[in-house]
Amino acid sequence: MITTIIIILGILMQVYALFLCKRLFSIISEKEHRKAVFVLFLLICFFLIGYCIYLYLLLTELKQHDPMTSLISGIFFFGAVFVVIVLKTNYRFLQKINADNAEIKKDTKKIEEKNEELDSSNKELSKVKTELARKNKELESTLEEFYTFRLSMEKNLKEDSIKKENK
Fold first, then answer.
1. How many CA atoms lie within 13 A of 155 on its CB side?
2. Confidence class of residue 77 from pLDDT cuts 50, 70 and 90?
3. Taking a C-beta distance cutoff of 8 angstroms, is the pair 3, 69 a contact?
4. Are 54 and 7 contacting, i.e. CB atoms less than 8 angstroms apart?
5. Closest Cα to residue 70, out of 54, 82, 84?
6. ∠ Cα 89 78 91 (to 5°)
7. Do the Cβ atoms of 26 and 98 come closer than 8 Å?
8. CA-to-CA separations, 108 to 9, 104, 120, in angstroms, rounded
9. Under a CB-based contact definition with an 8 Å cutoff, are residues 95 and 26 in contact?
10. Rounded to the nearest 5 degrees, what angle is found at the Cα of 72, between the Cα atoms of 40 and 14?
């Protein structure tokens, strides 16, 4: 009786595993990985059929209840538990990866926007730099003219002062 219950629980776990596998399949986008999950789905179906056949053999008493039957029932049950745990873990990992991927895409978009702003600012700074260089050249030229004018004035003042002294 207990072996029958364990087998039924194993069958229920495998049915739940099919649901988990289908849910896992729905969040995978790459074709290569979808094939692997589909193969896993088929294997779960295959094992589920095996569980049902074994249960049928137990219920119709074509299979004798002995310690080996209990061991096989336990292996079936814990095998189903293992499959469910693996599928749940994979589903959580994929959800986390997809969430992280979405966050990375969002951050990448922000970085691209900031990069465009920096490019715009850089072009603006380049224009300002060019304008400042032009004005600097203009100021240097004016300063040179002023310096030349000052030297000329100084020379004229000296000449005038010498002329006054000579008179």
1. 6
2. very high
3. yes
4. yes
5. 54
6. 15
7. no
8. 47, 6, 18
9. no
10. 30
| pLDDT over 70 (residue 72) | yes
Calpha distance 127→121 (Å, rounded)? 10
Q: How far apart are CA 165 and CA 155, in angstroms?
A: 15
Residue 14 contacts residue 47 (beta carbons within 8 Å)? yes
> In the predicted model, what is the mean pLDDT of the chain?
90
Cα–Cα distances (Å) from 77 to 1, 9, 22, 63, 136, in that order, read 15, 7, 21, 18, 86
Structure tokens at 53: 């056949």
Q: What is the separation, in whole angstroms, between the first and last Cα of the chain?
A: 144
Closest CA to 38 of 23, 52, 54, 21: 21
